[in-house]
Write a structure and sequence with these properties.
By secondary structure, the protein is an all-beta fold. It is about 0% helix and about 30% strand.
Length: about 110
Amino acid sequence: MAIISTRINELPLVQDPTQFEIPGFNIQTNAGGKARMSDLVGPTGPSPNVSIVAHSIPNGQNPTVTKGGTNLNPTYDFGIPVAADGRTPELRVSDGYIQYRYGTDPWVNLK
């Protein structure tokens, strides 16, 4: 990935601030000539290959999560406590959260 460096005094002069360009970047400005940081888009990088496993831990312990692996191949190991009566947890992903429950109990977000 190349780093693009431009000094302010090397930028082209433009009469219309919505037409401002820096070589190598696609910057869209609003009518006032302001660009948001989210508009400074570079090349898309590789997508990670995420692995998730879950296991039961003894009743009374707090849920756990351990991250391992690398940035491109992260692993997440979730420990979910067994219920007091011995029921094992059920897992799902909903509304952007990993959730667990026992039987028909309400879903709980893993925090």
